[in-house]
Predict the structure.
Amino acid sequence: MIRVGLTGGIGAGKSTVARTLTERGAYLIDADVIAREVVAPGTDGLTQLVEAFGEGILQPDGALDRAALAARAFVDEGQRKKLNGITHPLVGARAFELLEAAPADAIVLQDIPLLVENGSAPFFHLVVIVHADEDVRLARLTGQRGMPEEDARARIKSQASVEDRRAVADVWLDNSGTPDDLAALAAALWDERLVPYEGNVRNRICAPQPSEEVDVRPEWALQATRLTNRLRVVGGDTIADVVHVGPTAASAGRAPDVLEFEVRLADGKAPADVTALLADGGFPERSAGVHANADPGRAVTISVS
Ligand code: ADP
């Protein structure tokens, strides 16, 4: 099983990508759908919201009046925190339940609009960002979805910047073309990366690595930061530190496109304590104390000491 986080700004094309990947067999956990589910009529979530914000947030039929809730919750930081304090744990718990129910060979796709904002990128085997420029998104949101322009602009402004998204993207899907172009990119991602990645993780197989040397690439530093954060989450308390080492950590020169890391264990821990954690996290053991990538799209070598 692998977990893939899918995100992008509002109107970027997440739903379109999610549809293609779900058609191919992804196990979708949609944060927006869950967010509606946990405050549906009759839920504990809705009861808590009414206790916090009053009966005025209900429609005559007893369902949540989203506009009325927004008018009360988005007035200041304190009210917004109160709302998130109720809904976020419920959404998290439900997403966890669905994750637990996923088959052992699932490619779990979690569509999370605020993945970048809430800092959860390192919790995924892979983060996929769908991107379209702001003016393109505005046109699509106001045109096809009929959203008032002011609302669309406000939503876009409140979300992460393009740089923040780039920093956590393992895969960047450009949606400036047609919906068919985007579907083709998503289908290729599924066939060429997600399916082999999942099989490798489940069977604890390392993907092939390139051996030819290339000039040091500027993007390696950002990729190493992402992988360092990922390894820290994967190793948890068993590791004390993760360091990017070797020729790809240099500012010039030539090296194969294989990022090298040292994972330093916490006091009292042995390499065997981290073997299964790294393997499940996407880095199977290649030889004693050395792990490598299950992901065919990003070669890494990790030595554990
Ligand atoms: P998100 O889920 O990221 O908010 P959607 O996938 O719903 O974005 O896309 C936003 C709107 O733009 C939808 O109406 C969708 O049909 C439309 N759309 C998505 N991709 C394209 C595209 N490449 N060309 C034209 N319209 C698109």
Observations:
- The chain is about 45% helix and 20% strand.
- The domain at 2-199 is CATH 3.40.50.300 (Rossmann fold).
